[in-house]
């Protein structure tokens, strides 16, 4: 791999900071935001069901709706270009035909493979409990959320993942079916107004065993 590419990617990872104070004059166009979300959505998911769903909160009205649900994160809500609410769709299997048919149309998958996999996946999903499905979806949501933050960084923006908000109220607040859409996290995004600060990570020898 090109050394410049490697170094650029390393800078994206090591240069990322959790930013709580953004430049409120910097906005992100919906076209660029869609590009960031498209890049994030290249993350892997269980049987490629892509259960993640996003609500991009970038309007004055949207932020006013969000503010009382994120009482301890007011600066991020007020100053960021947007806050992205990440949900998982607990009925993501309804998209299985669309996903696998498109894979065949694009030549990514033979039709006979699709014809075997789709019924098998449907059977798997039908036999899963809500908790099993939620656990699977939350893993996928973690993957897409991290990729979203790295994609944002590659576009020159900064982010902050937020877990402290009214998860039991957010679906209703943005007119989503709370029985279907399970909240995962908020991610604020924008241009940092300060440099943030580095955080310590445990050394590899403390977190790894070699067998």
Present the secondary structure layout.
Elements: H1 3-14, H2 30-40, E1 52-57, H3 60-66, H4 74-79, E2 82-89, H5 96-105, H6 111-126, H7 130-154, E3 158-162, H8 167-173, E4 181-190, H9 204-207
Helix pairs in contact: 2-7, 5-6
Quick structural overview:
Belongs to the nitroreductase family. The chain is of the alpha+beta class.
Residue stretches low in confidence (pLDDT < 50, at least 5 long) are none
Global structural class: alpha+beta
Contiguous helical run count: 9
Q: How much helix, percentage-wise, in residues?
A: 40-55%
Q: Which fold name corresponds to the CATH topology of the domain at 14-91 and 131-192?
A: NADH Oxidase
Keywords: Oxidoreductase
Family: Belongs to the nitroreductase family.
Organism: Cytobacillus oceanisediminis 2691
InterPro entries: Nitroreductase (IPR029479), Nitroreductase-like (IPR000415)
């Amino acid at each position: 791999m090109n050394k410049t590419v490697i170094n650029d990617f390393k800078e994206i990872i090591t240069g990322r900071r959790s930013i709580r104070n953004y430049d409120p004059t910097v906005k992100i166009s919906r076209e660029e935001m869609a590009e960031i979300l498209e890049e994030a959505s290249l993350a892997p998911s269980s049987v490629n069901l892509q259960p993640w769903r996003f609500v991009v909160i970038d309007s004055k009205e949207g932020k006013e709706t969000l503010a009382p649900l994120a009482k301890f994160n007011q600066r991020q809500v007020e100053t960021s270009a947007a806050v992205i609410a990440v949900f998982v769709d607990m009925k993501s299997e309804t998209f299985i035909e669309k996903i696998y048919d498109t894979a065949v149309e694009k030549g990514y998958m033979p039709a006979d493979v699709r014809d075997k996999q789709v019924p098998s996946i449907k059977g798997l999903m039908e036999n899963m409990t809500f908790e099993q499905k939620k656990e699977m979806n939350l893993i996928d949501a973690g993957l897409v959320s991290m990729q979203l933050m790295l994609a944002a960084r590659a576009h020159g923006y900064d982010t902050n993942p937020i877990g402290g908000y009214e998860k039991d109220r957010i679906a209703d607040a943005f007119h989503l079916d709370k029985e279907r859409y399970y909240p995962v996290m908020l991610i604020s995004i924008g241009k940092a107004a300060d440099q943030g600060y580095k955080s310590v990570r445990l050394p590899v020898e403390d977190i790894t065993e070699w067998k």
